[in-house]
């Protein structure tokens, strides 16, 4: 493990209007860590990631990536970052060839290199036959594979992944999990945001749980288990976010539906 943190966040706060979304997040993240970044809907996970990526401004606090303060205006650090967004923000009218060579060139590969690499990676994930087809014709899983390839084509050192397995079939899930483990073993840092607790539990070396804009747990799965009386990450999540009403809510929901009789 590197001595210097790859990402260092000090007292990060962020508000949208009068709503305080992040209430003082401090973190140090090191090379080779797979961080499971979890929390309830609206907890502030995407906001944290978008701030780190330079996509959202107006925060307070200090963020350093590879030792460089991201508020300095330098874009150099972004070359070392890969990002799989939660929602598909790809240009549907382009083909994978056009999209991936464009992304590759943005990150400094030449056209020939980007084309070769893109074709090979598409082939490895079983979608080479649509390389020259418009992305709009892809299935959900195909689009997700394309997003994963585009986040990795420039061999980044830090990966931010938001629900990266969304829409992937069971075989592809196994390949992607293996790729992530392999990249972490090479010293890359992976920031993995997901609501699928059993996957987070298995792939993360460190789990950070945020609730209402604050970190409420930070440690390996085993460490979290020791601090909680619960067994699975899903149960720890429920406990630490103070939630135990799933049965009650489901029951009320079904009752409401049944009040309408044809
Ligand atoms: N551009 C915006 N303008 C106003 N409020 C926003 C904006 N983006 C996010 N928010 C608010 O900030 C809060 C945190 O949102 P964020 O997307 O970071 O949550 P999240 O933890 O990623 O949630 P999810 O698990 O649902 O993806 C929410 O209350 C959301 O409504």
Secondary structure layout plus pairing:
Blueprint: E1 7-16, E2 19-29, E3 34-38, H1 45-52, E4 60-65, E5 68-69, E6 81-84, H2 96-106, H3 111-124, H4 140-152, E7 158-162, H5 170-185, E8 189-193, H6 197-203, E9 206-211, E10 214-219, H7 221-227, H8 233-240, H9 246-258
Parallel strand pairs: 3-8, 3-9, 6-7, 7-8
Antiparallel strand pairs: 1-2, 1-4, 4-5, 9-10
Bound molecules: adenosine-5'-triphosphate (ATP).
Overall description:
With 262 residues, the chain is an alpha/beta fold. It has a single domain, classed as Rossmann fold (3-Layer(aba) Sandwich). It is built from nine helices and ten strands. It has helices at 45-52, 96-106, 111-124, 140-152, 170-185, 197-203, 221-227, 233-240, 246-258; strands at residues 7-16, 19-29, 34-38, 60-65, 68-69, 81-84, 158-162, 189-193, 206-211, 214-219. The strands form two sheets. Strands 6-7-8-3-9-10 form a six-stranded mixed β-sheet, with helices on both faces. The protein has a four-stranded antiparallel β-sheet with strand order 2-1-4-5, covered by helices on one side. A hairpin with a 2-residue loop joins β4 (60-65) and β5 (68-69). α2 (96-106) packs across α3 (111-124). The termini are far apart. The model has no long low-confidence stretch (mean pLDDT 91). It binds adenosine-5'-triphosphate (ATP). Adenosine-5'-triphosphate (ATP) binds at residues 16, 21, 39, 41-47. Keywords: ATP-binding, Nucleotide-binding.
Number of domains: 1
Named at the architecture level, the CATH assignment is 3-Layer(aba) Sandwich
Query: What is the number of E strands?
Result: 10
CATH fold topology: Rossmann fold
The CATH top-level class label: Alpha Beta
Give the strand content. 15-25%
User: Which kinds of small molecule does this entry bind, naming each only once?
Assistant: adenosine-5'-triphosphate
Low-confidence stretches: none
Shape: globular
Structural class computed from helices and strand pairing: alpha/beta
Sketch the major β-sheet: 6 strands, mixed
Give the % helix: 25-40%
Distance between the termini: 64 Å
Q: H/E order of the elements?
A: EEEHEEEHHHEHEHEEHHH
Spatially, the strands of the biggest sheet line up as: 6-7-8-3-9-10
Find the CATH superfamily. P-loop containing nucleotide triphosphate hydrolases
Please, how many helices? 9
Summed over residues and divided by their number, the pLDDT gives a mean of: 91
Protein name: ABC-2 type transport system ATP-binding protein
InterPro entries: AAA+_ATPase (IPR003593), ABC_transporter-like_ATP-bd (IPR003439), ABC_transporter-like_CS (IPR017871), P-loop_NTPase (IPR027417)
Organism: Desulfotruncus arcticus DSM 17038
GO molecular function: ATP binding; ATP hydrolysis activity
């Amino acid at each position: 493990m590197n001595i210097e943190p790859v990402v260092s966040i000090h007292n990060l706060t962020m508000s949208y209007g009068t709503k305080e979304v992040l209430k003082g997040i401090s973190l140090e993240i090191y090379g080779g860590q797979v961080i499971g970044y979890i929390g309830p809907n609206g907890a502030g996970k995407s906001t944290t990631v978008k701030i780190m990526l330079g996509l959202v401004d107006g925060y307070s606090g200090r963020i350093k990536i590879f030792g460089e303060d991201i508020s300095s205006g330098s874009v150099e650090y972004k070359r070392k970052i890969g990002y799989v967004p939660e929602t598909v923000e790809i240009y549907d009218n382009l083909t994978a060839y056009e999209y991936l060579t464009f992304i590759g060139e943005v990150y400094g590969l030449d056209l020939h290199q980007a084309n070769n690499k893109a074709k090979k990676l598409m082939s490895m994930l079983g979608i080479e036959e649509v390389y020259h087809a418009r992305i709009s014709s892809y299935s959900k899983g195909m689009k997700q594979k394309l997003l994963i390839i585009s986040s990795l084509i420039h061999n980044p050192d830090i990966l931010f992944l938001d629900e990266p397995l969304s829409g992937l079939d069971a075989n592809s899930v196994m390949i992607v999990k293996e790729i992530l483990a392999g990249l972490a073993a090479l010293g890359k840092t992976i920031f993995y945001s997901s609501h699928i607790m059993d996957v987070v539990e298995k792939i993360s070396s460190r789990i950070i749980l945020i609730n209402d804009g604050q970190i409420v747990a930070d440690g390996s799965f085993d460490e979290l288990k020791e601090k909680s009386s619960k067994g699975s990450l899903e149960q720890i999540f429920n406990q630490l976010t103070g939630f135990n009403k799933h049965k009650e809510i489901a029951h009320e929901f079904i009752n409401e539906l049944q009040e309408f009789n044809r």
